[in-house]
Design a protein that fits this description.
The complex is a heterotrimer of chains A (213), B (242) and C (283). By secondary structure, chain A is an all-alpha fold. Chain A has one domain (14-212): MetI-like (MetI-like fold, Orthogonal Bundle), CATH 1.10.3720. Chain A is 81% helix and 0% strand. Chain A has helices at residues 7-45, 51-66, 69-79, 85-110, 114-122, 127-157, 169-180, 184-212. In chain A, 43% of the residues are buried. In chain B, 75% of the residues lie in helices and 0% in strands. The longest helix of chain B has 42 residues, at 2-43. The radius of gyration of chain B is 21 Å and the shape is flat. Chain C has a 6-stranded mixed sheet with strand order 8-9-10-3-11-12, with helices on both faces. Chain C starts with 32 loop residues before the first strand and ends with a helix. With 283 residues, chain C is an alpha/beta fold. The chains are: A mainly alpha (213), B mainly alpha (242), C alpha/beta (283). At the A-B interface, helix 2, helix 3, helix 4, helix 6 and helix 7 of A face helix 2, helix 3, helix 6, helix 7 and helix 8 of B.
Amino acid sequence: MNDVWSWERAAEALPPILEGFRITLLATVIGTVVAAVLGLLVALVRRSRSRWVTAPVGLVVEFVRSTPLLVQLVFVYLMLPGVPALVVGCAVLGVHYATYMSEVYRAGIDAVPRGQWEAAKALDLPRTRVWRAVVLPQAVRKTLPGLGNYAISMFKETPFLFAISVVEMFTAAQQFGARNFVYTEALTMVGLLFLLASYPTSLLVRRLENRLA
Amino acid sequence: MSDNLSTLLDALPRLGEGVVVTLQLTLGGAALALVLALLLGLGSRTRSLWVRGPSRVVVEFFRGTSLVVQLFWLFYVLPVFGFRMESLACGILALGLNYGAYGAEVVRGSINAVPTGQWEAATALDLGPVHRLRRVILPQAWALMIPMFTNLLIQLLKGSALATYILLHDVNYFIEQLRRSTQDTFFSYSVGLLVYFALAYALTLVMNALEVRAKNRLGTGPSLREVLRLAPVPATARGGAA
Amino acid sequence: MPETTAHPDAAPPDAVPDARPAATSEPGTVPAIEFQGVVKRFGDNTVLDGLDFTVAKGDRVTLIGPSGSGKTTILRLLMTLEEADGGIILVDGDPYTHEMRGGKRVAVPEKRRRTVRRRVGMVFQQFNLFPNMSVLENIVEAPMHVLGLSRKQATVRAEELLDQVGLADKRDARCTQLSGGQQQRVAIARALAMDPEILLLDEVTSALDPEIVADVLGVLREVAETTDITMLIVTHEMQFARDVSNRVLMFDHGRIVEEADPETMFTAPTHERTQEFLRAVLG
């Protein structure tokens, strides 16, 4: 058994992994906030009547959405040598996931019944009020589960940050493995940590979804 | 710029090789994922807890642990247990397991979405459960699965970029090679991203064609020939991957 | 017609002997359908509470009554789309989903259920044709794979039935291209292709435009006249019920409130509940 697994090594690996976990969480939270805000902006912009606006925005969104996050991370990191890696990481994660979030918002906004728009119009409410007080509050309810699920996805994609030397949880494990020539304990524990963090959270999001349905 | 372009032209054969590797990973991973998705998705629906339990555990396990961790675990840790796998097999296995688990949920949901009347009509005709699944339920569920499978397929393509870190010469690897030869980060990465975009678009078109065909078979849509313009499938609204 | 497994005059070994003679069968013949103390609950709601009744071979029984009275549940139990919580159902004297063994009520294994289920066919309100198959394929599917007929035999039978329901020219059409009435006629052909002894009709015209209803009922009338299939019909079409049935059962809250032949039932019902119901439905 000692050949394959060492509890001592596992215990040694845990502190750096937990240090990395803090960075993982930080990146996830900041990335999600960026994605949520930027995604909403993109969704609103895409509702414009002008094709001069929607076409290029649509193209950029499709481009970012369909190309690998990994490549985007390294690209931006190399192009901005002065910027700290973590900042680049959060920014790229945020932009990448904003493209997913804009679809979630779009669906949420479309799901607000026509009658709401018409009632607001009948009351002659100014457009900003219509959005802030009537439409968005209802749309956001529908988007919360989607936001939750994408946050969990992002959490599981933070390991891509290894490519730009951000020492989040996975990189910490990888570095430990490289230093000690054995990856088994470190990688296994990281995997389990991801599972332990993401599974209960996804159950909570599912519960939220059922409540809001 | 013209220097860059001529370097790129010289490098085209290597780009071709990179694309081949990426496609091997993507299509190989997708094939494995489809098989696993069907097995696990159907397994999650059986009445027997002996099958349903493990299926659900496997699905949640591979969804919950990260793709990156899975890939490097297979690459670094599996050899310790005596299994030596070459990189390509590693990549395909990791991608297949991870996206197969996500696919299982798609399969399960789509089968549940087939109208109850279809199940009842099959019972009324005394069709056996396997026969009913094969001839009535799955053909109808398939049309529902395709849009969500398309999203997973594109994610799988994006995930394949990791392979460069397990020593495979895919498109991502080519990007670095190009960067070294042109000394132009912006150019090389733009080219690389465009190649990935083109691959994603092509795959989406193929999946859309499959969807048109599937709907046509159910009589709920026009035939492929009748469709003049194919637009890429919009993303699902519900955070499809988690 | 497929052979029944029990000799008509011998009592089946496991069944409780039939104590109540059916309305039109001769004493000693096995009823086509027998419900013995059948109980069915949906959550807190007890829809059938110890129901007993029999249907003789060749009977055409119409079940009428308000919604929720249990009529559709009876059909669904006979098609094993629901399972009874208590009591025994016998088809041709054979226990269907449960039987009494040594005084205990036990479930019948799926294999035996299938042999009994094969004798029962059903036409649904929503037609439920298989959209991924053509009209012909819908009809030959079960005969080929369940009854074991060759493609040729099944196709010949299917074409005969399509002719009978007036849709011979639609054999290769996709089901979604057909109108509701046409789909329902295909559904009838599909059910008949299995050569059932018992045909269950669950509000088969309720989802159709009024003008189309007559076509479908015409097909069913013809089936009633040219075969001796036992039929259990749930319908609002009272004229059809009068034309085709020899017995009408009025249901309310899971019990048979009144039973009579169509003439008596529709012109001079005796029970107050029946009178109320018919007044509301027929005006």
